Amino acid sequence: MFWDEKLSPADLFFDNHLHFLTLGNISISAYMSFFNNNKLSEAATVAASSDYIYKDLLTNLDQTLAPLTIMEGDESRVIQILQDDICGKFEDSSITPLFSDNKFSLNNHSFKKIVLTPLIMDFDYPYVQQKNAYKLAPPHSVNKQAVSLINAITAYYVSDKDGPFIIRPYIGINPENYTMDEIQMFLHRYFSNWSGTAQDGLKAAKRLATFKVTDDCVYPNFFGGIKFYPPMGFDAAPQNRLLREKVNHIFAYCEKHGIPIITHCDDQGFRLIPMEKSLNLTSPEHWESVLNKYPNLYLDFAHFGRQYFRKNPLKNKVSTLWMEKIIDLMIKYPNVYTDISFNAFESNFWGSIFTLAYSHSESEQEIIRKKIIFGTDWPLSLLKISTAAEYIRRFDKLPLDKEFKYAMVNENPRNFGFRD
Ligand SMILES: [Zn+2]
Fold first, then answer.
1. Count of domains in the chain?
2. What is the bridge-based pairing of β-strands 336-339 and 372-373?
3. Nearest CA among 186, 209, 289 for reference residue 244
4. Which range marks the domain in which residue 276 is found?
5. How far is the CA of 201 from the centre of ligand 1 (A)?
6. Which pTM was predicted?
7. CATH code assigned at 171
8. Beta bridge partners of 116
9. Each residue of 37-69: pLDDT tens digit?
10. What spacing in Å lies between the alpha carbon of 206 and ligand 1's midpoint?
């Protein structure tokens, strides 16, 4: 049975940050060309941090192969692998799977369905010089990614009516790649008649099972929000006037309609611009002027601003911790959130969160608890953990109080983008 009308949002578990990436989505040649064109500075940059996970991407195959085996296929296969993972296929058969008998069970709570938020990223970055004779920068249109993903979700709903997942993707955009007219069309296509309510979100997801996708269709509320990715050049506060108008147009639209934004916010990841520029564009400080202008924006700083470089390797100066800045912004602005994707299961990471949070008053700590959202960042988190099930189980075992855990996997993501 497909989920019934009575399915309550309180019965949903949210993974609010993951990716259904396929290799064709990623600008691999641009990534390798960027390294190839900047060998010396890139070597110096990655040498400056011992736990910078991405530094060995091309040489440490043990680590890299796991996500590759997921991404080397189509979206339907990616969804199927994650379902098998959550249903215990890759665990010891003596362990009760996380999802079995139509419920998803953690230590203190069980849920009926899992809401997944795969983030489509705008991988178009034609500005890296490719030194081959063709000088080609292969296209990675987000519209094509959306068509392909929506078709895969439709096929999933049709083939498995009892499956664990409700899927509500985000769409990425780098405004630098588009004209103002194209940006207006983009917003119309993905977010006209958009609603952030749980009721409409569930209805839309259900409607998706019979939706016929065309290349230029307008999506009726299928997308949950927008993903920005500064390490590929997205600038939230650009100097250039024309670009600033385009970016501000998106922010104004999102603030007016309550459309959530997730921006990548740690200092590693897939990067196509020099480190110093990337650190500047990614930092929460860089968003301050945006929030000043659009104070009601729903904005999630992903990965809680985790920094692998304590010092800016190029300037050798200690800056304010991004995590500290994010906490300040969450306290100051009503709709600023953070997510703990990629890191949720790591107790040392929680140690640094608590150290900072305890320096705030009790009422501020209460606000912080309401602003942290769970995510896995699967399959990228396979760079450091074996399966999605292991990620979730280790998070579930952390000595955090159960009300806080429930808030992270249900109440907080609902307030962010699946509202009552
Ligand atoms: Zn991610």
1. 1
2. parallel
3. 289
4. 9-417
5. 22
6. 0.94
7. 3.20.20.140
8. 15, 167
9. 887 777 777 666 555 555 555 556 677 788 888
10. 25
